[in-house]
Amino acid sequence: MYRCNVCEAEFSEPKTTKDPVPYGSREVTYPGVSCCPFCGGDFEEVQICELCGETFTESKHNGVCDSCISIVVNRHSELLKTNFTPFEIAILNSALDGRNIQ
User: Fold this and answer.
1) Where are the domains of the chain?
2) Mind spelling out the 3-state secondary structure of the chain?
3) Helices 66-83 and 86-95, interaxial angle, to 10°?
């Protein structure tokens, strides 16, 4: 899946063109240039979030967008605060590779 950086359209396959491309005051032809099939703009590859189904471009967690990661982390924090004492949370933090899972 791809998203155009110009018109923001999403599409499954970019257009490959042999048309002239503006370059300064003249046009040059670059065979095999890929572009947005709608406006001819540049594009980037996007992923579909496995949790919410929205598209996103970059994430530290493969397959899940940053928004969903934030929601899961907040739910996790609330679960800890509801079910564990601060002392138990400190034990869990220490036991889980020293990560702070507040």
Assistant:
1) 1-45
2) CEEECCCCCEECCCEEECCEEEECCEEEECCCEEECCCCCCCEEECEECCCCCCEECCCCCCCCCHHHHHHHHHHHHHHHHHHCCHHHHHHHHHHCCCCCCC
3) 130
Query: What average pLDDT does the segment 4-13 reach?
Result: 92
- Model pLDDT for residues 34-89, shown as the tens digit of each residue: 888 998 889 999 989 999 999 888 767 778 999 999 999 999 889 999 999 999 98
Residue 9 near residue 55 (C-beta atoms within 8 A) = no
Which is higher by pLDDT, 92 or 23? 92
Token pair recorded at residue 20 = 């002239």
Residue 1 · residue 45 · CB < 8 Å: yes
The three-point CA angle 100-83-49 to 5° equals: 60
Taking alpha carbons only, the member of 88, 68, 71, 72 closest to residue 80 is: 88
